[in-house]
Write a structure and sequence with these properties.
This protein has 278 residues and is mainly α. The chain has 13 helices and two strands. It has helices at residues 2-6, 8-21, 33-45, 47-58, 65-88, 104-114, 120-136, 141-155, 157-161, 172-188, 193-203, 216-239, 241-245, and strands spanning 267-268, 274-275. α10 (172-188) runs parallel beside α12 (216-239).
Length: 278
């Protein structure tokens, strides 16, 4: 138990892999295993208070409308830029099922948000609902997100290697890159895992890898999609350095995290004065 308390996030990722990968002998992947792992670790290390904090982040909706727009717009922009580049390089214009009826895309996003069998809900409830803020209590957001990117990518390994999932090892790149986007959105949107869930559900709605049959067009879209997400991650790191380098701060369930961006040696107190970090 002491080992779990000293390394809760590491324990979580090990347990998540064990539970989710347990379905591999049946040529499957148990995505809800990541949520089960988080609930077990949080229960053992933080008790009911930790479970309540985890749940509150998942239903935190009172954030600026700007973050809702970005949660939807950025993943869709990445998808359409990738598709546009592929068609510019000679691929035929794809038939996107979500656009055959006007409500196709909104319905697909909504289903992804609420479906517990899909990966989006279990991942965001666990990764951003608990693991990311837990790491940020002792690490700067950049260091925490690097660790998250490594852990999340390792958890996804079966997707990259098992042919029935239709993915390839190169897709580890956008998996790592999009982790920085989710962390950026989470930290700006008052620590709301609901916003990252919306972004994740939107990102998973149009599967670019299925828009073209196997061949040069299909291979190219995978590389282009990976490149665009990497460029997004780099832009976030370069143009918002203050966010990534701020000091470790516990996630306050009632406070907008935008208000804690302070110089490295100072943390704002509730009365507006400056105090040394603990």
């Amino acid at each position: 138990m002491s080992l779990i308390r000293r390394h809760p996030v590491l324990t979580f990722f090990v347990l998540a892999c064990a539970l989710s990968w347990a379905a591999i002998p049946w040529q499957s992947f148990f995505a809800p295993g990541v949520l089960v792992a988080a609930l077990i670790v949080v229960s053992l290390t933080e008790g009911v208070a930790g479970l309540k904090a985890m749940g509150s982040r998942l239903i935190r909706w009172r954030v600026s409308w700007v973050w809702y727009v970005l949660a939807l717009a950025v993943p869709l922009a990445v998808t359409f830029v990738s598709i546009g580049l592929n068609t510019a390089f000679g691929a035929p214009v794809p038939d996107i099922a979500e656009f055959r009826v006007w409500y196709g895309l909104p319905m697909a996003i909504a289903i992804n948000i609420v479906n517990p069998i899909n990966a989006q809900l279990p991942e965001e409830a666990s990764f951003r609902g608990w693991a990311q803020p837990t790491l940020q209590t002792t690490r700067r957001p950049l260091a925490a997100t690097v660790l998250m990117a490594i852990g999340v990518t390792i958890w996804h390994i079966p997707f990259f290697l098992m042919p029935q999932f239709g993915s390839s090892p190169i897709e580890a790149l956008p998996t790592m890159a999009v982790t920085f986007w989710y962390a950026w959105l989470f930290n700006h949107a008052s620590g709301s895992a609901l916003l990252t869930l919306i972004a994740h559900a939107t990102n998973g709605t149009i599967e670019t890898s299925t828009l073209w049959q196997a061949g040069a067009d299909a291979t190219r879209i995978t590389w282009l999609y990976s490149l665009v997400w990497c460029l997004v991650a780099i832009a976030l790191l370069v143009f918002d350095r203050r966010l990534w380098t701020r000091p470790p701060v516990p996630v306050d369930d009632q406070t907008n995290l935008e208000h804690v961006s302070a110089p490295v040696d100072e943390v704002p107190t509730t009365d507006g004065s400056q105090a040394k970090p603990r």
